[in-house]
Amino acid sequence: MNPAALAWQQFRFERKLFWRNPSAAFFNFLLPLLLLVLTASAFSADSEELEVLIPGIAGMGVLATTFTSLAFNITILRDEGVLKRWRGTPMPAGSYLAGLLASAALNAFLQVLIVVTIGNVLYGVDWPQDPLLLVLFTALGVVCFAALGIAFSHAIPNEDAAPAYTNAVFLPVIFISGVFYSSDDLPEALKAIAEALPLKHLIDGLSEAIVGGGGDAGTAALVVGGWTLAGLVLAVRFFRWE
Fold it and tell me: CA distances (Å), 32 to each of 63, 174, 240, in order?
């Protein structure tokens, strides 16, 4: 069987594993949608707040389904010896990783699609102003946070520490990056940190695609692209199977 067919088989296997793990499906996929409904319901009469919230939750969904999910799962797979056993099979490493990453990417695109649909159907937010830009930024965010998630998994010592390590990054980042409110309202110190991190710029790009407004999508793409390159270098340089 050729590598592409093996990658497809691995992708299908990852989809089954994902939906057969209720906690993973909830925290990495359903939780952002639940937060969207709860928060958007509180601001349903304020169109400006909704136009901040929809791109913000979409960005958080990309972060959760790629960075958080991969950092957590790869740590567990490595700690339990699953990666080592996979490495010992005839399946090419590229096919295995392609199936794993494709599953995370599908979750991210589905997350963004559902968030945008809920925003329009339930809360009256217009459909994306630039659908192509939305697809491009979602894809860039997927590659960026997937690479950073794999790289970050190298810093997690064992599977018991994985929840603490991933949440120690995930929770502060979403609260300072403009997921639930505009990051312009933050104190200057926190705003400077947010500007240095990729999630704020991903949300800026998604916001430009969804609600428009003349934001600087080029700068956002450059910052996320820079983090993507750094993540890829670190992920490849330090990846280990055991």
Answer: 10, 11, 30
What span, in angstroms and rounded, lies between the C-alpha atoms of 186 and 208?
20
Torsion of CA 152, 158, 161, 165, to 10 degrees: 0
The whole model's pTM is what? Answer: 0.91
Q: Name the residue type at position 116.
A: V
Q: For residues 205 and 137, what is the distance between their CA atoms, to the nearest angstrom?
A: 6
Residue 94 contacts by C-beta under 8 Å, 6 or more apart in sequence?
A: 3, 7
Q: What's the longest Cα–Cα distance across the chain?
A: 57
Condensed to tens digits (0 to 9), the pLDDT of residues 55-91 reads 999 999 999 999 998 998 899 888 888 888 877 777 7
Contact present, 222 and 65 (Cβ < 8 Å): no
Residue 122's pLDDT band (boundaries 50, 70, 90)?
Answer: confident
Q: How many CB atoms lie within 10 A of CB 131?
A: 12
Please state the domain extents for the chain.
3-238
